From TrEMBL:
<dbReference type="InterPro" id="IPR002656">
    <property type="entry name" value="Acyl_transf_3_dom"/>
</dbReference>
<feature type="transmembrane region" description="Helical">
    <location>
        <begin position="78"/>
        <end position="98"/>
    </location>
</feature>
<feature type="domain" description="Acyltransferase 3">
    <location>
        <begin position="5"/>
        <end position="319"/>
    </location>
</feature>
<keyword id="KW-1133">Transmembrane helix</keyword>
<feature type="transmembrane region" description="Helical">
    <location>
        <begin position="166"/>
        <end position="185"/>
    </location>
</feature>
<feature type="transmembrane region" description="Helical">
    <location>
        <begin position="37"/>
        <end position="58"/>
    </location>
</feature>
<dbReference type="GO" id="GO:0016747">
    <property type="term" value="F:acyltransferase activity, transferring groups other than amino-acyl groups"/>
</dbReference>
<protein>
    <submittedName>
        <fullName>Peptidoglycan/LPS O-acetylase OafA/YrhL</fullName>
    </submittedName>
</protein>
<feature type="transmembrane region" description="Helical">
    <location>
        <begin position="197"/>
        <end position="217"/>
    </location>
</feature>
<keyword id="KW-0472">Membrane</keyword>
<feature type="transmembrane region" description="Helical">
    <location>
        <begin position="293"/>
        <end position="321"/>
    </location>
</feature>
<dbReference type="InterPro" id="IPR050879">
    <property type="entry name" value="Acyltransferase_3"/>
</dbReference>
<feature type="transmembrane region" description="Helical">
    <location>
        <begin position="229"/>
        <end position="262"/>
    </location>
</feature>
<feature type="transmembrane region" description="Helical">
    <location>
        <begin position="140"/>
        <end position="159"/>
    </location>
</feature>
<dbReference type="Pfam" id="PF01757">
    <property type="entry name" value="Acyl_transf_3"/>
</dbReference>
<keyword id="KW-0812">Transmembrane</keyword>
């Protein structure tokens, strides 16, 4: 079992996304946003996913700095479960929530396969017409940005940038400065492109590169409990501040808290550590299950919906992990190189 708490954190992030969607799809406001914060619980979860992804894939590249091996590992992590969830979303959930009797005659196989390749949420004929977000699987929209971040890491590695800590940190600061200036943070927000890069890509890349930076500084940046307490207090206050302050705090104070908890060694956290990583399955199936229950039980309360969706999706995520994700991960190429130090 891994000697860290990252699987547990990812599980909590996925549950947080389901929590937010349980309110959103019933036309209620997320409780955190309703209290005046600039982020929903789900948005915090997505931010955590990208911060952790940057940290862990930087570790992967450092230990195995080969582009093809790196991309194969990333593809095996993303594609199999994504394809399975897309098929179920389009061919099972879509017809159940279809707003037209000609669902399959209007469905486009070309678009479906294009969305699979690009890891985009599947496009379907009209579904869930009365939903505030009439999508068969609205959670999937972030996965394509995860893929782009992996491609960014590959380019940086091939160009030798990953061997230069200072170069990565400068890039992370520059991208974060651009994102803090006004990139959108969650679905529905508007943001302008910068040098042809979408606002969403800037924000997700800023989180990802912040995670990379924390990995590269892991031996120089002390993760201490007292520092984490102050970081948590500062981050909590920043959630209710202006958007630029909140964004800056997310990639610094929030990230510090995240990696402190991720590496924290305590008897309680050790008991909660999980070998099975259910987070991806929960993330992929939470939305379609929420949509269906919101359609069939329109008067259900958000918290009751959250409890029902969680109870249904945990076994689905377990089957996804044991039947799809873990077998795919066993196909990863064996490492052939030792970890290489990163230059200062």
């Amino acid at each position: 079992m891994h000697k860290n708490n990252f699987n547990l954190l990812r599980l909590l992030f996925a549950v947080g996304v389901i929590f937010s969607h349980s309110f959103e799809l019933l036309r209620h406001q997320d409780p955190l946003e309703a209290s005046g914060a600039g982020m929903s619980v789900g948005t915090l979860g997505v931010c955590g996913f990208f911060l952790l992804s940057g940290y862990l894939t930087a570790q992967s590249w450092t230990h195995e700095p080969r582009a093809l091996a790196f991309l194969k590992k990333r593809a095996l992590r993303l594609y199999p479960a994504f394809i399975a969830a897309s098929v179920l979303s389009v061919f099972v959930v879509g017809p159940l929530g279809a707003s037209t009797a000609q669902y399959f005659s209007d469905w486009s196989a070309h678009k479906f396969f294009a969305d699979l390749i690009g890891l985009r949420q599947p496009r379907t004929p009209e579904v869930f017409a009365n939903s505030p977000v009439p999508s068969v699987n609205g959670s999937m929209w972030t996965i394509t940005f995860e893929l782009r971040c992996y491609l960014l890491m590959t380019v940086l590695g091939l160009c030798g940038v990953m061997k230069r800590r200072w170069a990565i940190l400068l890039l992370a600061v520059a991208v974060n400065a651009a994102a803090i200036a006004g990139a959108p943070m969650q679905r529905g927000e508007q943001g302008d492109a910068l040098f042809g890069v979408s606002g969403f890509m800037l924000w997700f890349a800023s989180l990802y590169l912040a995670g990379v930076g924390f990995y590269l500084l892991r031996e120089r940046l002390p993760l201490r409990g007292r520092f984490a307490v102050f970081a948590l207090l500062g981050f909590g206050a920043a959630l209710f501040a202006t958007a630029p302050v909140m964004r800056a705090a997310t990639v610094t104070l929030g990230a510090y808290c995240l990696f402190y908890i991720g590496q924290r060694q305590s008897p309680l956290l050790q008991k909660l550590r999980m070998r099975d990583d259910l987070s991806y399955g929960l993330y992929l199936y939470g939305w379609p299950v929420t949509q269906l229950l919101a359609l069939w039980l329109p008067s259900i309360a958000p918290l009751a919906l959250f409890a029902c969706v969680s109870a249904i999706c945990v076994p689905i995520a377990f089957v996804s992990w044991r039947g799809v994700e873990a077998p795919a991960l066993r196909l990863k190429p064996a490492p052939t190189a030792q970890a290489r130090p990163v230059a200062a």
